[in-house]
Amino acid sequence: MEFLEIPVFDDDFFKMMFRFFINFTFLTLIIRFIYYPMAKRKDYVFTYYLISAIVFFLCFTLKKYELDIGMALGLFAIFGIIRYRTDAIPIKEMTYLFVVIGVSVINSLANKKMSYAEIVGANALVIFVLIVIERYWALKQEESKSIVYENIENIKPENYPLLKQDLEDRTGLSINKVTIGNIDFLKDTAEVTIFYFRAN
After folding, report:
1. 129-174: per-residue pLDDT in tens?
2. Phi and psi (nearest 5°) for 191?
3. Neighbour count for residue 69 (Cβ, 10 Å)
4. Exposed/middle/buried for residue 74 (C-beta within 10 Å: 0-12, 13-18, 19+)
5. pLDDT tens for residues 7-46?
6. Structure pTM?
7. Cα(93)–Cα(47) distance, integer angstroms
8. Rounded distance, CA 22 to CA 4, Å?
9. What is the rounded (10 degree) CA torsion for 167, 171, 173, 174?
């Protein structure tokens, strides 16, 4: 049955919904249980879910036109270079954006030559790699802060342990190293930069 030359229903609806369920399940594992516990960024969680859903339905719809692999990769590249003009996206968040788009493209464009076992296996391998890198191989990220320090006696090289301990007590951070910047003897202050590992 057709309405305005468009079929009201066909069997691809069930295929689309089943594929979307698979896609959403694996995306939830990636976004909610791997990315979010590490980054704690709710704004990117929203972005990843919405972009992956749109990419999935767009690719599934365009698949009706029997796109070749070149067109599929072209679509992937277009979405992969998305830039938000208001804020620069950190490299890790861009990588996760690339991952969720890639997973959605795989799940939507897979054809009869690819079994569901292969689709699930590909998704599972992506998740396995993410878990291994995030939890076991990823190096700790060192961050820094500049502080105006008033106890100028502690900036002497021989008092470095006292300086480090004082800054740790005041900031509550486990400091790796401290560097001394500009010194103002008139105000008895100095600019110091502390380096520490970001807590996950």
Report:
1. 998 888 777 656 668 889 999 988 899 899 999 999 999 999 988 8
2. -90, 120
3. 8
4. exposed
5. 666 777 888 899 999 999 999 999 999 888 877 788 889 9
6. 0.63
7. 10
8. 32
9. 10
The greatest distance separating any two alpha carbons of the chain, rounded to the nearest whole angstrom, comes to 87
- Locate tokens 């990117």: which residue? 44
What are the CB-based long-range contacts (under 8 Å, 24+) for 149-157?
149/189, 149/190, 149/191, 149/192, 150/188, 150/189, 152/183, 152/185, 152/188, 152/189, 152/190, 155/180, 155/183, 155/190, 155/192
Alpha-carbon torsion (169, 171, 174, 178), positive or negative: negative
Structure tokens at 104: 């959605």
Q: Residues in the chain, how many?
A: 200
| Residue carrying the six token digits 């799940």 | 107
Is 70 exceeded by the pLDDT of residue 56?
yes
